Amino acid sequence: MLAQNTFRGTHSSSLAASSQTSTSYTAIKVHNAFSTTNGSPHNTQNYSYFFSNSLAKTRRARRRKKAFLARASSSGTENKTLEWFNFGPRGTMLQQTFADGPPLHVSTPLIYSQPLSERNERTTYIKMDNCQPSGSFKLRGLGYACQKALVLDGKKSFVSSSGGNAGLAVAYSGYRLGAKTTVVVPETTPAFIRDRLESYKAKVIVHGKQWSEANGLAEKIALEEDAFFAHPFEGEDTWTGHATIVHEMCAQLRDAGETVPPSFICTCVGGGGLLLGIAQGLREVGWAKTDVLVSETVGCDSLFQSVQKNELVTLPAITSVAKSLGAAQVSPTAFDLTQQWKREGKSPRVTSTTVTDDQALDACKNFANHHRALVEPACGACLALSYEGRVRDATNDTNDAGCVVVQVCGGAITDLSAFSSSSSS
What is the pTM of this model? Predict the structure, then answer.
């Protein structure tokens, strides 16, 4: 994307305070403090960063805790300014797409989390994409892809095959853009999700026992009607839209007083679209030393199993409660992303791990108590990395002084009854 990233844009409120008030955002070399060495941002000989011997780990934890406590009691008199590059909150999305109206997604809050900071022994922020109008981050990428298809490609209707967050994002996009929308869902889709899709004036077709069957019919309908087929997680436009998470984060962390890029961004992975968008955003803003920790629940862990076996794995069935992570096979591009660091030293460095359903559900409940927001089990898989001590034990050998950002991906496809039934069972 950096080959085509010169465009006109408008600074966010945080950027307006800087010396540039309105300009062309053009990719430039990032500040020396964050630039790569010999083409590689990390020490390519050291792959054992995630867990080290217990003595060294204890010493690091003590140093981080000391730094965290010192930061918490600081008066903030130091006047430091981030010098990383920022495209602006719209990232590298084509600005012609918004000739008739702004993006469909909103800039979401980045909030300091005291409970997670204490558990991680690092300053920790939560990026609240559960606040998107459709209920999840999916609106960033799929909203942009739909808007671009309508405005620049001349498509008049949209088709989706998701009974989850992706379907809701496409239905909301069609509703806002005045485009006919069809969403094909499998029989397992809950009634309240079907009702929500129909509330956005989408035509809902129930077909097949699993997503692959619904997807096959959706592709056929899109071809017959010359409609834009919005794949739940594949597509460069979708990834570009998701990358705006990092572009927003860049300005928000500067406003929060951070002076180095994050050490870690934590997220979950299903099909891999969010992971690919975050990776694109990290490369675009020059955060070569920010590592990504990704989590899945056991039972829908197609990426984790693929990484372990060093080949793409197709799951025979989805057996986890985190249904919105339920891609039988992760995007081949996402799997390749996890290999790029080992193969060629190309950032970001991605670490894949799993948590149990119980750990994900407990994380959702803890998060609701701590931050008064109900999120779905898929998001709980990411939050569990903090609540279960995984982030605290993680190390980044090239940028260990940065903060942690936890991507709160969504909460649209859950309600209180889901947690009540899980407790009783």
Answer: 0.81
